[in-house]
């Protein structure tokens, strides 16, 4: 428990005839980036709203550092919502100072932190402009600063890369990793599976209001590894073991023969021996599914016809 910052225990939420969450439990370790994944309507936003005390769970509990969630925790949580909300007519610096003071910073500290983050995000030159005068990408960066300006111990990011071009997406990625390195615990909700593999240490997948998968990224990918292997040889390889199937065959620019094999229960050693009896081995590796592959496999409705 001492290494867990956020603990969700058996949380359920109901809206009349709709089940928004059903008996969801997750543990987010301190200093980790924890992915919260799921298709639209799965229950992710409901869980985030419960953690932020915007709504209450009907069943279960939420603990921060082992303590039941309460109003004193608000100042230690940062939240970047998917639906952004800034005051369009207010100048950038005034807006940042306002939100920082709402989270408990003094007037002086709020100004200092605002200027530090504006410098870090390349926005210092627009500090005296109104939000409505900024591009969408700049507004997104201001919204991010609002969520981190008070140095929260728990940062909740809901689709933080929405609206960013590749350059600003890379800048935001670096800032997120810097926050992790400084000890911030991050709950990251997204549909961008490639960023999950780049950023997350662990993840949970929610579908149809229930958690259906959790663990470290490495554990999950290993759990779903397939019986497919990629092979490159100096000359063409044709299996002499009947169970081995050739699924794809190509040639590289260097003249090597590449094949995708399905072993169908044949051991790696048996396959390799069969290869070496015929040709020179250049490359042999198991195909590990991406988080995106696993996501699609688990949440795609099955056809029972």
Please specify the SSE layout and strand pairing.
Blueprint: E1 4-15, E2 18-29, E3 33-37, H1 44-51, E4 59-64, E5 67-68, E6 77-80, H2 92-102, H3 107-120, H4 136-148, E7 154-158, H5 166-181, E8 185-189, H6 193-199, E9 202-207, E10 210-216, H7 217-223, E11 228-233, E12 245-251, E13 257-262, H8 268-276, E14 281-286, H9 291-299
Parallel strand pairs: 3-8, 3-9, 6-7, 7-8
Antiparallel strand pairs: 1-2, 1-4, 4-5, 9-10, 11-13, 11-14, 12-13
Helix pairs in contact: 2-3
Explain how this protein is built.
The longest helix has 16 residues, at 166-181. Helix 2 crosses helix 3. This protein has 2 domains: 4-85 and 148-222, Rossmann fold, CATH 3.40.50.300; 226-287. It is elongated. The chain has 305 residues and is α/β, with parallel strands linked by helices. The chain is built from 9 helices and 14 strands. 31% of the residues lie in helices and 29% in strands. It has helices spanning 44-51, 92-102, 107-120, 136-148, 166-181, 193-199, 217-223, 268-276, 291-299; strands at 4-15, 18-29, 33-37, 59-64, 67-68, 77-80, 154-158, 185-189, 202-207, 210-216, 228-233, 245-251, 257-262, 281-286. The strands form 3 sheets. A 6-stranded mixed sheet has the order 6-7-8-3-9-10, sandwiched between helices. The model has no long low-confidence stretch (mean pLDDT 92). The two termini are 46 Å apart.
What are the main properties of this structure?
305 residues, Rossmann fold, four-stranded antiparallel beta sheet, six-stranded mixed beta sheet, alpha/beta
């Amino acid at each position: 428990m001492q290494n867990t910052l956020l603990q969700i225990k058996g949380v359920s939420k109901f809206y009349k005839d709709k089940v928004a969450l059903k008996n969801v439990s997750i543990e987010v370790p301190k200093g980790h980036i924890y992915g919260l994944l799921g298709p639209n309507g799965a229950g992710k936003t409901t869980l985030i709203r419960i953690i932020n005390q915007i709504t209450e769970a009907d069943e279960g509990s939420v603990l921060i550092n082992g303590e039941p969630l309460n109003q004193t925790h608000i100042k230690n949580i940062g939240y970047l919502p998917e639906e952004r909300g800034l005051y369009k007519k207010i100048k950038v610096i005034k807006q940042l100072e306002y939100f920082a003071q709402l989270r408990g910073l003094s007037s002086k500290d709020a100004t200092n932190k605002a200027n530090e983050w504006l410098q870090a995000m390349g926005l210092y030159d627009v500090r005296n402009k109104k939000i409505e005068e900024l591009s969408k990408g700049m507004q997104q960066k201001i919204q991010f600063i609002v969520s981190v300006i008070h140095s929260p111990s728990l940062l909740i990011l809901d689709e933080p890369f929405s609206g960013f071009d590749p350059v600003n997406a890379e800048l935001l990625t670096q800032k997120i990793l810097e926050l992790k390195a400084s000890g911030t615990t991050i709950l990251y909700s997204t549909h961008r599976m490639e960023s999950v593999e780049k950023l997350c240490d662990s993840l949970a997948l929610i579908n149809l209001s229930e958690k259906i998968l959790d663990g470290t990224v490495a554990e999950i990918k290993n759990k779903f590894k397939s019986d497919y292997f990629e092979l490159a040889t100096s000359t063409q390889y044709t299996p002499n073991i009947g169970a081995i199937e050739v699924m794809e065959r190509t040639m590289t620019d260097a003249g090597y023969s590449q094949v995708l094999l399905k072993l169908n229960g044949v051991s790696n050693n048996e396959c390799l021996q069969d290869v070496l009896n015929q040709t020179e081995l250049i490359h042999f590796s198991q195909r590990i599914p991406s988080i995106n592959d696993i996501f699609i496999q688990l949440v795609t409705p099955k056809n029972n016809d």
